[in-house]
UniProtKB/TrEMBL annotation:
Cysteine disulfide partners in this protein: 155-188, 156-172
SUPFAM superfamilies assigned: Tetraspanin
Pfam families: Tetraspanin (PF00335)
Name assigned to this protein: Tetraspanin
CDD domains xref list: penumbra_like_LEL
Chief subcellular location: other
Amino acid sequence: MGRDRDPARSDADFTFVSPAVKYLLFLFNFIFWIISFVMVAIGLYARLIKQAETALACLAVDPAVMLMVVGIFTFIVTFCGCVGSLRENLCLLQTFCISLTVIFILQLTAGILGFIFSDKGRGKVTEIINKSIVHYRDDIDLQNLIDFGQKEFRCCGGEAFTDWSHNIYFNCSNQNPSRERCSVPFSCCIMTNDTQIFNTMCGQGMQELPYIRAGEHIYTDGCIDKLVNWIHNNLFIIGGIALGLAIPQLVGMLLSQILINQIKDQIELQNYNARHRSDPWS
């Protein structure tokens, strides 16, 4: 049998808002708020240590800028969730819930469109890679990212190693005075386990060699095909990562919506009590 309600206890002491939901949502947002702050700090630091002329050279593909943009947006959204849950603010909680819903829908839409229009997506990836090749020497972060990708995927250029001719330093025209004319970056070079000293100039003049001869020294396959093959071979891993990103969003939406409904019920209860205190005969 349940206990009878204590008549001495005031109705004002009762609340629909669950402390567990409230503080769990706060903790959830606080963790991601800290992560977003670190992302912004790292992105800002990466931008500040670059030279002034480099800072505007390749803004559209700068990983530091992308990190800052994502970090700032996450910072704002999670800040709304933190303050909204702690202060039981309906406006901030609804902003947080709507933002997560929009992000989830956009991610889902992008995934569906990417699957349907995979050919156009390949063209867009080709455009981004070619643009990155053009700005290879302009941005140290972009340079490190490209070198890492070419080493990991054992590839060179976008569709072929000759794509490096799009870069002003590696361009293979006779008018190019660069010492790196007709070369490719060292990250294209084939490295063996028994290599004692790595030659950073191993890509010198490789674009002038026939495809078969160049293949003895560097990776001649383009990174686009390598990337597509890697995606096909790792669909389960990619799906797991996508699910891992979606679960926190769904949890955040669920907790925020539960708290919103509880706060609305609490407001209705307070309004009801206020009306009956002012009119005892109703």
